[in-house]
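Quick review question:
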Protein backbone atom coordinates (compact mmCIF):
# COMPACT_ATOMS: atom_id res chain seq x y z
CA UNK A 1 0.00 0.00 0.00
CA UNK A 2 1.24 3.47 -0.90
CA UNK A 3 1.81 6.10 1.75
CA UNK A 4 -0.26 9.26 1.34
CA UNK A 5 0.84 12.65 2.55
CA UNK A 6 -1.42 14.24 5.10
CA UNK A 7 -1.75 17.36 2.98
CA UNK A 8 -3.14 15.49 -0.03
CA UNK A 9 -5.21 13.26 2.16
CA UNK A 10 -6.93 16.22 3.81
CA UNK A 11 -7.65 17.75 0.41
CA UNK A 12 -8.95 14.53 -1.11
CA UNK A 13 -12.62 13.89 -1.61
CA UNK A 14 -14.48 11.02 -0.07
CA UNK A 15 -13.95 8.88 2.99
CA UNK A 16 -14.40 5.24 3.89
CA UNK A 17 -11.27 4.14 2.22
CA UNK A 18 -8.14 2.43 3.43
CA UNK A 19 -5.13 4.77 3.85
CA UNK A 20 -1.52 4.62 4.99
CA UNK A 21 0.14 7.65 6.60
CA UNK A 22 3.54 8.11 8.21
CA UNK A 23 4.68 10.87 10.49
CA UNK A 24 5.62 12.12 13.94
CA UNK A 25 3.36 12.12 16.96
CA UNK A 26 2.54 15.63 18.14
CA UNK A 27 0.30 14.63 21.01
CA UNK A 28 -1.42 11.56 22.37
CA UNK A 29 -4.41 11.77 24.65
CA UNK A 30 -7.25 9.55 25.71
CA UNK A 31 -7.77 6.82 28.21
CA UNK A 32 -8.07 3.16 28.82
CA UNK A 33 -10.20 2.26 25.85
CA UNK A 34 -9.46 4.72 23.14
CA UNK A 35 -6.54 7.01 22.30
CA UNK A 36 -6.31 9.99 19.99
CA UNK A 37 -3.00 10.66 18.27
CA UNK A 38 -2.30 13.93 16.47
CA UNK A 39 0.05 12.98 13.65
CA UNK A 40 2.07 15.40 11.53
CA UNK A 41 4.22 14.53 8.53
CA UNK A 42 5.48 18.00 7.63
CA UNK A 43 3.52 18.24 4.40
CA UNK A 44 1.13 20.68 6.05
CA UNK A 45 0.76 22.47 9.34
CA UNK A 46 -2.38 20.41 9.95
CA UNK A 47 -2.28 17.17 11.88
CA UNK A 48 -4.42 14.19 11.13
CA UNK A 49 -6.23 12.63 14.04
CA UNK A 50 -5.61 8.93 14.48
CA UNK A 51 -8.10 7.07 16.62
CA UNK A 52 -6.98 3.77 18.09
CA UNK A 53 -9.11 1.29 19.95
CA UNK A 54 -6.70 0.19 22.66
CA UNK A 55 -8.05 -3.34 22.82
CA UNK A 56 -6.89 -3.97 19.27
CA UNK A 57 -3.23 -3.13 19.96
CA UNK A 58 -0.30 -4.49 21.87
CA UNK A 59 -0.03 -2.67 25.19
CA UNK A 60 3.74 -2.21 24.97
CA UNK A 61 3.40 -0.61 21.52
CA UNK A 62 0.76 1.80 22.77
CA UNK A 63 3.08 2.88 25.57
CA UNK A 64 5.83 3.69 23.15
CA UNK A 65 3.68 5.99 21.05
CA UNK A 66 4.65 9.23 22.73
CA UNK A 67 5.23 12.81 21.59
CA UNK A 68 8.02 12.85 19.03
CA UNK A 69 7.81 9.17 18.10
CA UNK A 70 7.63 8.24 14.42
CA UNK A 71 4.92 5.85 13.31
CA UNK A 72 3.16 4.46 10.27
CA UNK A 73 -0.60 4.09 10.55
CA UNK A 74 -2.85 2.04 8.37
CA UNK A 75 -6.56 2.38 8.75
CA UNK A 76 -9.89 3.65 7.56
CA UNK A 77 -10.30 7.28 6.59
CA UNK A 78 -13.62 8.29 8.10
CA UNK A 79 -15.65 11.37 8.87
CA UNK A 80 -14.88 12.65 12.34
CA UNK A 81 -17.43 13.36 15.00
CA UNK A 82 -14.99 15.29 17.14
CA UNK A 83 -14.46 19.00 16.84
CA UNK A 84 -11.47 20.46 15.01
CA UNK A 85 -11.27 18.06 12.09
CA UNK A 86 -13.47 16.76 9.30
CA UNK A 87 -11.77 13.41 8.93
CA UNK A 88 -9.80 11.00 11.05
CA UNK A 89 -8.11 7.67 10.63
CA UNK A 90 -9.48 4.68 12.54
CA UNK A 91 -6.26 2.80 13.04
CA UNK A 92 -6.11 -0.86 12.06
CA UNK A 93 -2.37 -1.33 12.36
CA UNK A 94 0.44 0.84 13.67
CA UNK A 95 4.13 0.34 13.06
CA UNK A 96 6.61 2.10 15.30
CA UNK A 97 9.62 3.40 13.34
CA UNK A 98 11.28 5.33 16.12
CA UNK A 99 10.38 5.85 19.72
CA UNK A 100 11.06 9.11 21.52
CA UNK A 101 11.92 9.09 25.19
CA UNK A 102 9.43 11.39 26.94
CA UNK A 103 11.97 12.17 29.65
CA UNK A 104 14.49 13.69 27.27
CA UNK A 105 12.66 14.75 24.07
CA UNK A 106 13.11 18.53 24.11
CA UNK A 107 9.88 19.43 22.30
CA UNK A 108 7.46 18.15 24.90
CA UNK A 109 5.59 21.27 25.70
CA UNK A 110 4.57 24.28 23.74
CA UNK A 111 5.81 27.79 24.23
CA UNK A 112 9.58 27.35 23.94
CA UNK A 113 11.49 30.56 23.31
CA UNK A 114 13.02 31.23 19.89
CA UNK A 115 16.43 31.32 21.58
CA UNK A 116 15.98 27.83 22.99
CA UNK A 117 14.70 26.51 19.67
CA UNK A 118 17.82 27.87 17.95
CA UNK A 119 19.88 25.64 20.23
CA UNK A 120 17.95 22.64 18.96
CA UNK A 121 17.91 23.62 15.30
CA UNK A 122 18.10 19.91 14.44
CA UNK A 123 14.61 19.41 15.92
CA UNK A 124 12.92 22.78 15.51
CA UNK A 125 11.54 21.99 12.03
CA UNK A 126 9.14 19.69 13.92
CA UNK A 127 7.41 22.66 15.53
CA UNK A 128 4.42 24.33 13.93
CA UNK A 129 6.22 27.65 13.62
CA UNK A 130 9.35 26.36 11.93
CA UNK A 131 7.45 23.94 9.73
CA UNK A 132 5.42 26.92 8.51
CA UNK A 133 8.47 29.14 8.01
CA UNK A 134 10.41 26.55 6.04
CA UNK A 135 7.46 25.65 3.82
CA UNK A 136 6.96 29.34 3.06
CA UNK A 137 10.68 29.72 2.41
CA UNK A 138 10.46 26.89 -0.08
CA UNK A 139 7.40 28.35 -1.78
CA UNK A 140 9.14 31.70 -2.17
CA UNK A 141 12.26 30.07 -3.63
CA UNK A 142 10.09 28.27 -6.15
CA UNK A 143 8.16 31.46 -6.96
CA UNK A 144 11.41 33.33 -7.59
CA UNK A 145 12.42 30.84 -10.26
CA UNK A 146 8.92 30.81 -11.70
CA UNK A 147 8.74 34.59 -11.90
CA UNK A 148 11.99 34.95 -13.76
CA UNK A 149 11.47 31.92 -15.94
CA UNK A 150 8.05 33.20 -17.03
CA UNK A 151 9.67 36.53 -17.93
CA UNK A 152 12.39 34.89 -20.00
CA UNK A 153 15.26 35.50 -17.58
CA UNK A 154 18.12 33.01 -17.54
CA UNK A 155 19.30 31.52 -14.21
CA UNK A 156 23.04 32.12 -14.22
CA UNK A 157 25.20 30.28 -11.71
CA UNK A 158 27.90 32.62 -10.51
CA UNK A 159 30.91 31.34 -8.56
CA UNK A 160 30.97 30.94 -4.81
CA UNK A 161 34.76 31.04 -4.61
CA UNK A 162 36.12 34.26 -6.06
CA UNK A 163 39.44 36.05 -6.22
CA UNK A 164 38.03 39.54 -6.54
CA UNK A 165 37.44 41.76 -3.57
CA UNK A 166 35.81 44.13 -5.99
CA UNK A 167 32.94 45.31 -3.87
CA UNK A 168 35.57 46.66 -1.53
CA UNK A 169 33.40 45.07 1.12
CA UNK A 170 36.60 43.84 2.73
CA UNK A 171 34.90 41.58 5.20
CA UNK A 172 35.27 38.30 3.35
CA UNK A 173 35.92 34.74 4.42
CA UNK A 174 39.21 33.49 3.07
CA UNK A 175 39.35 30.17 1.25
CA UNK A 176 42.63 28.32 1.49
CA UNK A 177 44.20 24.89 1.65
CA UNK A 178 47.46 26.25 3.04
CA UNK A 179 48.61 24.66 6.29
CA UNK A 180 47.73 27.37 8.78
CA UNK A 181 50.33 26.03 11.18
CA UNK A 182 53.04 26.48 8.59
CA UNK A 183 52.09 29.15 6.11
CA UNK A 184 54.51 29.59 3.18
CA UNK A 185 55.93 33.10 3.08
CA UNK A 186 57.58 35.29 0.50
CA UNK A 187 60.90 37.01 1.21
CA UNK A 188 59.14 40.11 2.51
CA UNK A 189 57.25 37.99 5.03
CA UNK A 190 53.83 38.17 3.34
CA UNK A 191 51.86 34.98 2.66
CA UNK A 192 52.87 33.24 -0.57
CA UNK A 193 49.48 32.56 -2.11
CA UNK A 194 51.10 31.24 -5.29
CA UNK A 195 51.49 28.05 -3.26
CA UNK A 196 47.79 27.99 -2.39
CA UNK A 197 45.21 25.81 -4.17
CA UNK A 198 44.22 28.39 -6.77
CA UNK A 199 47.62 30.00 -6.98
CA UNK A 200 46.20 33.23 -5.60
CA UNK A 201 44.23 34.48 -2.61
CA UNK A 202 40.57 33.50 -2.77
CA UNK A 203 37.40 34.23 -0.76
CA UNK A 204 33.79 33.27 -0.46
CA UNK A 205 31.70 35.59 -2.60
CA UNK A 206 29.81 38.55 -1.12
CA UNK A 207 27.71 38.97 -4.27
CA UNK A 208 27.32 37.44 -7.71
CA UNK A 209 26.67 40.79 -9.30
CA UNK A 210 29.85 41.43 -11.23
CA UNK A 211 29.67 38.04 -12.90
CA UNK A 212 25.92 38.57 -13.32
CA UNK A 213 26.65 41.68 -15.37
CA UNK A 214 28.80 39.61 -17.71
CA UNK A 215 25.78 37.39 -18.28
CA UNK A 216 23.39 40.30 -18.83
CA UNK A 217 25.70 41.76 -21.48
CA UNK A 218 25.32 38.59 -23.52
CA UNK A 219 22.07 36.88 -22.59
CA UNK A 220 20.10 40.04 -21.89
CA UNK A 221 18.21 39.27 -18.70
CA UNK A 222 19.69 36.98 -16.08
CA UNK A 223 19.34 36.33 -12.39
CA UNK A 224 21.41 34.59 -9.79
CA UNK A 225 20.06 32.91 -6.67
CA UNK A 226 22.72 31.54 -4.41
CA UNK A 227 24.53 31.75 -1.10
CA UNK A 228 26.65 34.78 -0.26
CA UNK A 229 28.94 35.35 2.68
CA UNK A 230 29.88 38.31 4.84
CA UNK A 231 32.45 38.03 7.60
CA UNK A 232 31.09 41.15 9.25
CA UNK A 233 30.70 40.99 12.99
CA UNK A 234 27.10 42.18 12.92
CA UNK A 235 25.02 40.74 15.72
CA UNK A 236 21.68 42.12 14.59
CA UNK A 237 18.30 40.54 13.88
CA UNK A 238 18.89 41.32 10.18
CA UNK A 239 22.41 40.03 9.50
CA UNK A 240 23.75 36.54 8.82
CA UNK A 241 27.27 35.52 7.89
CA UNK A 242 25.83 33.17 5.25
CA UNK A 243 22.70 34.26 3.44
CA UNK A 244 21.04 33.79 0.08
CA UNK A 245 20.69 36.51 -2.45
CA UNK A 246 18.68 36.96 -5.62
CA UNK A 247 20.42 39.22 -8.11
CA UNK A 248 18.74 40.00 -11.42
CA UNK A 249 20.81 41.89 -13.94
CA UNK A 250 19.32 43.29 -17.13
CA UNK A 251 20.71 44.82 -20.31
CA UNK A 252 18.87 47.89 -21.61
CA UNK A 253 17.19 48.70 -18.27
CA UNK A 254 17.56 52.17 -16.80
CA UNK A 255 16.97 52.95 -13.12
CA UNK A 256 13.21 53.38 -13.62
CA UNK A 257 12.92 50.02 -15.35
CA UNK A 258 14.95 48.55 -12.50
CA UNK A 259 12.59 49.96 -9.87
CA UNK A 260 9.55 48.77 -11.81
CA UNK A 261 10.97 45.26 -11.90
CA UNK A 262 11.88 45.24 -8.21
CA UNK A 263 8.41 46.39 -7.17
CA UNK A 264 6.60 43.98 -9.47
CA UNK A 265 8.86 41.13 -8.35
CA UNK A 266 8.33 41.46 -4.61
CA UNK A 267 4.59 41.98 -5.05
CA UNK A 268 4.42 38.83 -7.15
CA UNK A 269 6.24 36.84 -4.49
CA UNK A 270 3.95 38.05 -1.72
CA UNK A 271 0.89 37.28 -3.80
CA UNK A 272 2.28 33.83 -4.50
CA UNK A 273 2.75 33.16 -0.80
CA UNK A 274 -0.75 34.42 0.03
CA UNK A 275 -2.25 32.15 -2.61
CA UNK A 276 -0.20 29.06 -1.88
CA UNK A 277 0.69 29.16 1.82
CA UNK A 278 -2.53 30.31 3.42
CA UNK A 279 -2.59 27.68 6.20
CA UNK A 280 0.95 28.51 7.26
CA UNK A 281 0.42 32.27 6.98
CA UNK A 282 -2.81 32.09 8.99
CA UNK A 283 -0.93 30.24 11.69
CA UNK A 284 1.91 32.78 11.79
CA UNK A 285 -0.59 35.63 11.76
CA UNK A 286 -2.24 34.14 14.81
CA UNK A 287 0.82 33.05 16.75
CA UNK A 288 3.74 35.26 15.70
CA UNK A 289 2.57 38.56 14.33
CA UNK A 290 -1.01 39.78 14.45
CA UNK A 291 -0.43 42.37 11.71
CA UNK A 292 1.19 39.98 9.28
CA UNK A 293 -1.60 39.43 6.77
CA UNK A 294 -2.64 43.06 6.89
CA UNK A 295 0.93 44.12 6.18
CA UNK A 296 1.27 41.72 3.25
CA UNK A 297 -2.00 42.94 1.77
CA UNK A 298 -0.89 46.51 2.22
CA UNK A 299 2.31 45.96 0.27
CA UNK A 300 0.64 44.30 -2.70
CA UNK A 301 -2.13 46.88 -2.88
CA UNK A 302 -0.11 50.10 -2.76
CA UNK A 303 2.38 51.79 -5.03
CA UNK A 304 5.77 52.10 -3.39
CA UNK A 305 6.82 55.69 -2.68
CA UNK A 306 9.77 56.72 -4.84
CA UNK A 307 11.90 59.61 -3.70
CA UNK A 308 15.52 60.66 -3.44
CA UNK A 309 18.09 60.13 -0.73
CA UNK A 310 18.44 63.91 -0.49
CA UNK A 311 14.75 64.34 0.30
CA UNK A 312 14.96 61.51 2.84
CA UNK A 313 17.79 63.28 4.66
CA UNK A 314 15.69 66.47 4.77
CA UNK A 315 12.74 64.54 6.20
CA UNK A 316 14.95 62.97 8.86
CA UNK A 317 16.41 66.36 9.80
CA UNK A 318 12.91 67.86 10.11
CA UNK A 319 11.62 64.93 12.19
CA UNK A 320 12.73 66.35 15.50
CA UNK A 321 13.91 62.88 16.47
CA UNK A 322 17.03 62.02 18.39
CA UNK A 323 18.85 59.36 16.42
CA UNK A 324 21.41 56.88 17.68
CA UNK A 325 23.32 57.41 14.44
CA UNK A 326 23.73 60.94 13.14
CA UNK A 327 22.13 61.86 9.85
CA UNK A 328 23.21 64.38 7.28
CA UNK A 329 23.86 64.54 3.57
CA UNK A 330 26.69 62.13 2.75
CA UNK A 331 26.05 59.80 5.66
CA UNK A 332 24.62 56.35 5.05
CA UNK A 333 21.15 55.67 6.37
CA UNK A 334 20.85 53.23 9.26
CA UNK A 335 17.94 50.89 9.94
CA UNK A 336 16.42 53.33 12.45
CA UNK A 337 16.27 56.02 9.74
CA UNK A 338 14.96 53.67 7.10
CA UNK A 339 12.26 52.39 9.41
CA UNK A 340 11.20 55.90 10.40
CA UNK A 341 10.73 56.80 6.75
CA UNK A 342 8.74 53.66 6.00
CA UNK A 343 6.78 53.09 9.18
CA UNK A 344 6.12 56.58 10.42
CA UNK A 345 6.62 59.13 7.70
CA UNK A 346 5.40 57.55 4.47
CA UNK A 347 3.66 54.54 6.04
CA UNK A 348 4.43 52.64 2.84
CA UNK A 349 7.36 50.78 1.29
CA UNK A 350 9.82 53.33 -0.07
CA UNK A 351 12.37 53.30 -2.88
CA UNK A 352 15.13 55.81 -2.30
CA UNK A 353 17.27 56.82 -5.25
CA UNK A 354 20.27 58.97 -6.13
CA UNK A 355 22.54 58.36 -3.16
CA UNK A 356 25.85 60.20 -2.70
CA UNK A 357 28.57 58.41 -4.66
CA UNK A 358 30.83 58.34 -1.61
CA UNK A 359 28.62 55.82 0.21
CA UNK A 360 27.91 53.58 -2.78
CA UNK A 361 29.91 51.07 -4.79
CA UNK A 362 32.23 51.96 -7.66
CA UNK A 363 30.10 50.40 -10.41
CA UNK A 364 27.07 52.64 -10.01
CA UNK A 365 26.32 55.10 -12.82
CA UNK A 366 26.98 58.72 -11.97
CA UNK A 367 24.36 61.42 -12.26
CA UNK A 368 25.06 64.71 -14.03
CA UNK A 369 25.41 66.54 -10.70
CA UNK A 370 28.77 64.83 -10.14
CA UNK A 371 27.78 64.01 -6.55
CA UNK A 372 25.14 61.29 -6.71
CA UNK A 373 24.73 57.92 -8.39
CA UNK A 374 21.79 56.07 -9.92
CA UNK A 375 21.30 53.83 -6.90
CA UNK A 376 18.05 52.54 -5.48
CA UNK A 377 17.31 50.97 -2.11
CA UNK A 378 13.94 49.42 -1.40
CA UNK A 379 12.92 49.89 2.23
CA UNK A 380 10.32 47.73 3.94
CA UNK A 381 8.43 48.09 7.22
CA UNK A 382 9.97 46.19 10.09
CA UNK A 383 13.14 45.43 8.13
CA UNK A 384 14.59 48.55 6.54
CA UNK A 385 16.69 47.85 3.44
CA UNK A 386 15.53 44.74 1.67
CA UNK A 387 16.86 45.47 -1.84
CA UNK A 388 19.90 47.38 -3.00
CA UNK A 389 20.41 48.08 -6.68
CA UNK A 390 21.52 50.54 -9.31
CA UNK A 391 22.00 51.37 -12.92
CA UNK A 392 25.57 50.33 -13.69
CA UNK A 393 28.25 52.55 -15.19
CA UNK A 394 28.58 51.41 -18.78
CA UNK A 395 31.22 53.92 -19.89
CA UNK A 396 34.70 52.42 -19.95
CA UNK A 397 36.63 55.59 -19.14
CA UNK A 398 34.31 56.72 -16.36
CA UNK A 399 34.33 53.29 -14.76
CA UNK A 400 38.10 53.05 -14.95
CA UNK A 401 38.54 56.50 -13.47
CA UNK A 402 36.29 55.58 -10.56
CA UNK A 403 38.21 52.34 -9.93
CA UNK A 404 41.45 54.35 -9.82
CA UNK A 405 39.98 57.07 -7.59
CA UNK A 406 38.95 54.43 -5.09
CA UNK A 407 42.28 52.63 -5.37
CA UNK A 408 40.62 49.35 -6.29
CA UNK A 409 42.77 46.59 -7.83
CA UNK A 410 42.24 47.44 -11.50
CA UNK A 411 44.25 44.44 -12.68
CA UNK A 412 41.87 42.04 -10.94
CA UNK A 413 38.92 43.67 -12.71
CA UNK A 414 40.24 43.45 -16.27
CA UNK A 415 37.45 41.10 -17.32
CA UNK A 416 34.77 43.38 -15.87
CA UNK A 417 36.23 46.39 -17.64
CA UNK A 418 36.41 44.56 -20.97
CA UNK A 419 32.62 44.30 -21.17
CA UNK A 420 32.66 48.11 -21.33
CA UNK A 421 35.24 48.01 -24.09
CA UNK A 422 33.44 45.53 -26.33
CA UNK A 423 29.82 46.31 -27.06
CA UNK A 424 28.91 47.97 -23.80
CA UNK A 425 25.24 48.67 -23.09
CA UNK A 426 23.17 50.48 -20.49
CA UNK A 427 22.17 47.98 -17.84
CA UNK A 428 20.85 47.69 -14.30
CA UNK A 429 20.27 45.20 -11.54
CA UNK A 430 19.58 44.69 -7.88
CA UNK A 431 20.08 42.29 -4.99
CA UNK A 432 17.28 41.02 -2.79
CA UNK A 433 18.38 39.47 0.46
CA UNK A 434 16.34 36.26 0.56
CA UNK A 435 16.22 35.86 4.35
CA UNK A 436 15.18 39.46 4.91
CA UNK A 437 12.36 38.89 2.49
CA UNK A 438 11.35 35.62 4.17
CA UNK A 439 11.37 37.56 7.45
CA UNK A 440 8.96 40.05 6.00
CA UNK A 441 6.62 37.42 4.61
CA UNK A 442 6.60 35.26 7.75
CA UNK A 443 6.69 38.05 10.32
CA UNK A 444 9.60 36.40 12.14
CA UNK A 445 11.48 38.96 14.19
CA UNK A 446 14.95 37.45 13.92
CA UNK A 447 16.71 36.50 10.69
CA UNK A 448 18.19 33.45 12.48
CA UNK A 449 14.71 31.97 12.50
CA UNK A 450 14.04 32.00 8.77
CA UNK A 451 17.02 29.90 7.64
CA UNK A 452 17.23 26.28 8.79
CA UNK A 453 20.79 26.44 10.09
CA UNK A 454 21.93 30.03 10.69
CA UNK A 455 25.56 31.05 10.51
CA UNK A 456 26.41 34.00 12.72
CA UNK A 457 29.52 35.15 14.61
CA UNK A 458 30.64 32.38 16.99
CA UNK A 459 27.95 30.02 15.76
CA UNK A 460 28.28 27.32 13.13
CA UNK A 461 26.60 24.42 14.92
CA UNK A 462 24.68 21.82 12.91
P1 LIG B 1 23.01 46.49 5.37
O1 LIG B 1 23.32 47.94 5.29
O2 LIG B 1 21.64 46.19 5.90
O3 LIG B 1 24.09 45.69 6.05
P2 LIG B 1 24.15 46.16 2.78
O4 LIG B 1 24.15 47.56 2.30
O5 LIG B 1 25.40 45.58 3.30
O6 LIG B 1 22.97 45.97 3.86
P3 LIG B 1 24.01 44.99 0.14
O7 LIG B 1 25.47 44.80 0.09
O8 LIG B 1 23.40 46.04 -0.73
O9 LIG B 1 23.53 45.23 1.64
O10 LIG B 1 23.29 43.58 -0.12
C1 LIG B 1 22.08 43.43 -0.84
C2 LIG B 1 20.97 42.87 0.02
O11 LIG B 1 21.40 41.71 0.74
C3 LIG B 1 20.51 43.81 1.12
O12 LIG B 1 19.53 44.68 0.62
C4 LIG B 1 19.95 42.89 2.15
O13 LIG B 1 18.62 42.51 1.81
C5 LIG B 1 20.81 41.66 2.03
N1 LIG B 1 21.87 41.57 3.05
C6 LIG B 1 23.01 42.29 3.12
N2 LIG B 1 23.80 41.90 4.12
C7 LIG B 1 23.14 40.87 4.72
C8 LIG B 1 23.45 40.00 5.82
N3 LIG B 1 24.59 40.12 6.51
N4 LIG B 1 22.54 39.04 6.14
C9 LIG B 1 21.40 38.91 5.44
N5 LIG B 1 21.05 39.68 4.41
C10 LIG B 1 21.91 40.66 4.03
MN1 LIG C 1 26.01 45.30 5.33
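Suggested answer, residue by residue:
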Amino acid sequence: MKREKIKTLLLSEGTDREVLVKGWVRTKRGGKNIVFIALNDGSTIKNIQVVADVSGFDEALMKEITTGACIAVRGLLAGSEGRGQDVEIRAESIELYGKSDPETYPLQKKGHTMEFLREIAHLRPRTNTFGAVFRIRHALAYAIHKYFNDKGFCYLHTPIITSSDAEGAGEMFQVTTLDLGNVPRKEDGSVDFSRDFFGKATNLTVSGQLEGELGALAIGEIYTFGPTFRAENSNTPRHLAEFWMIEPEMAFYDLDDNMDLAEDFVKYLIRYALENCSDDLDFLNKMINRDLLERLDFVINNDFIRTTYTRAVEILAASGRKWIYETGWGKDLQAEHERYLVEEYFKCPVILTDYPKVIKAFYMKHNEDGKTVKAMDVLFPGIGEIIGGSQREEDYEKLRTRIQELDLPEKDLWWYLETRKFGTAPHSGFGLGFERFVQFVTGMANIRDVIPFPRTPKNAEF
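Why it works: The chain has a mean pLDDT of 95. Residues 285 and 292 are 5 Å apart (CA to CA).
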